[in-house]
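Page 37, continued from 36.
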C-alpha cells in the first residue's frame, strides 16, 4: 500500500478545492479517524490546521453534516 504525501501548506487550500465532494468527504473521515487515533503530541499543529482547512472547505460547499463529523467530539 502506497503512503500518500500531503501537498505543502501553501498549496493545501487549492488542493482541497480541487477535490470532488466525495473525495473531500472521504478525506474528512480519514482526518477525523486520524485525530481520534493519534497521539496529540505526534500530530502537531500542522495536522490540526489542515483538518480545520478541510472543515472550512466542507462548510464552504454546504456539506455541514460532514464538517460536523470531522470536528472533535470532545468539545
Amino acid at each position: 500500500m502506497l503512503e500518500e504525501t500531503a501537498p505543502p501548506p501553501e498549496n493545501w487550500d487549492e488542493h482541497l478545492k480541487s477535490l470532488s465532494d466525495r473525495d473531500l468527504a472521504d478525506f474528512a473521515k480519514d482526518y477525523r479517524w486520524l485525530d481520534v487515533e493519534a497521539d496529540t503530541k505526534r500530530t502537531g499543529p500542522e495536522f490540526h490546521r489542515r483538518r480545520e482547512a478541510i472543515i472550512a472547505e466542507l462548510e464552504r460547499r454546504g456539506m455541514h453534516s460532514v464538517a460536523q463529523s470531522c470536528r472533535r467530539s470532545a468539545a
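The helical segments are 12-18, 21-37, 40-60, 64-70. Flag for discussion at group meeting. The radius of gyration is 12 Å.
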